[in-house]
Automatic annotation (TrEMBL), chains A, B:
SUPFAM superfamilies, A to Z: OsmC-like
InterPro entries in the cross-refs: KH_dom-like_a/b (IPR015946), OsmC/Ohr_fam (IPR003718), OsmC/Ohr_hydroprdx_reductase (IPR052924), OsmC/Ohrsf (IPR036102)
Source species of the chain: Desulfuromonas versatilis
Domain of life: Bacteria
Entry-linked Pfam families: OsmC
Protein name listed in UniProt: Osmotically inducible protein C
Length: 191, 191
């Protein structure tokens, strides 16, 4: 039995309708998310998020989102944005929290606050190609949640478990995703 | 033999010194990246990137970076930022491009422009818990590069291969990363 009304800022009536619609027509649940990236200089790049496909239609965000990435001085950049592996932590943190809050709403549990700290251990020898024994990416990631909700401790623990069980980015980072990279020379220089 | 001077905005002399220093003391290559996230309402969260550990010291970014995530209206959010799986694409795009540009610099290859388009296929039934047969995250990701560089086509193809071989986020998404999630109730509500 799902809750009704708006809980945690999530319209649970619309959530229930969406679930019913998908049960009737699973094709509605097929999404395709998109990004374009343009290099500036050194470690500085800008990603633009403009549109996506879902519910059998192409949709445009209310406005474009621009995400700047760069490296700190120690890593030879100009520190004009979080670096790519920090952006990966932001994707994980936001996804776990959104998953927790939406699934709490579906169960009628009011959440008042969610905070999390994340850290990931990375050995630069991978990126630099100095050792085959270390991986390029994070060796491991730690996430520490603090949740304030109308629920007892065991229910909050369950919500934290559920966030991991349902979060798309938790799956993307925990499990292998096939990435196909194509490309080649640019036909005409735009820089 | 590495190039010298500044190429593609990357100080290759400093890059060479860094590599030499790491060869002498691999502990310098141990990094720990960090993020904190705070939920606002619905699908809206804000991640702050403030400091990191590397080269045996705690270091602070020149300024804090704030990354807003939200869901579009179709996914019951207010569209106040890219959503978490779009942020994952931005992490991948920026990392592949930075890897390409830095390794090109180390080889003395001048890059004039790099652009990429990414998309990822995702079935919402995973997140909603409606099917055990679909995964929560991306089924697959496609990346399409356009590179303008002082190099022939086969060298550009090699750079695109090298980007994949060395990119930390490519590794993080392609291969499993262990994520440990802890947490529980907040001691005092801050909202």
């Amino acid at each position: 039995m799902m809750a009704t009304g708006k809980i945690n800022g999530v319209d649970v009536d619309r959530l229930a309708s969406t679930i019913d619609a998908i049960k009737g027509d699973p094709g509605i649940a097929s999404f395709r998310f998109r990004a374009t990236n343009r290099w500036d200089e050194g470690g500085h790049t800008e990603t633009t998020i403009h549109d996506f496909y879902g519910a059998r239609q192409d949709l445009t965000h209310q406005r474009d989102f621009h995400i700047h990435a760069d490296e700190p001085d120690l890593l030879l950049g100009k520190d004009m944005g979080a670096n790519p592996v920090e952006l990966a932590l932001s994707a994980l943190a936001s996804c776990l929290t959104t998953s927790l809050v939406y699934h709490a709403a579906a169960r009628g549990i009011t959440v008042r606050a969610v905070e999390s700290d994340l850290d990931g251990e990375l050995d630069l020898r991978g990126f630099l190609g100095l050792s085959d024994k270390v991986r390029n990416g994070y060796k491991n990631i730690n996430v520490n949640f603090r949740v304030d909700a109308d629920a007892d401790q065991s229910t909050i623990d369950e919500l934290i478990q559920l966030a991991q069980k349902r979060s798309p980015v938790f799956d993307i980072i925990s499990n292998p995703v096939s990435i196909k990279v194509n490309g080649g020379p640019m036909r005409s220089a735009k820089h």
